[in-house]
Design a protein that fits this description.
Layout (H helix, E strand, L loop, with lengths): L2 H19 L2 H4 L1 H9 L1 H15 L10 H4 L1 H12 L3
Helix pairs in contact: 1-4, 1-6, 3-4
């Protein structure tokens, strides 16, 4: 993983942690604010948050590369500049 990918995942993780710490009512507004600062990181965090909510995808019980390989692939492509 490149330094850029690591930095992106640090930002995604920080935003996701922030979202998970918020009350549900406030959770909806936080991604909108984050999108202004970094739209791609906000989108990835929002996708992960949705996956956590999805009962059919027990994200917290399964590594992300198993449960959502498309997210890892997208993040890797985004970080390397290839799409």
């Amino acid at each position: 993983m490149s330094e850029a990918e690591r930095e992106r995942w640090v930002r995604v993780e920080a935003l996701l942690d922030e979202l998970l710490d918020l009350e549900a009512a406030r959770r909806a507004e936080a991604p909108r604010r984050a999108r202004d600062a970094d739209p791609e990181v906000a989108a990835q965090a929002a996708e992960l948050l949705q996956a956590i909510r999805d009962e059919d995808a027990p994200l917290l019980d399964v590594p992300i590369f198993v449960s959502s390989p498309e997210l890892v692939e997208k993040a890797t492509a985004d970080a390397s500049g290839t799409r």
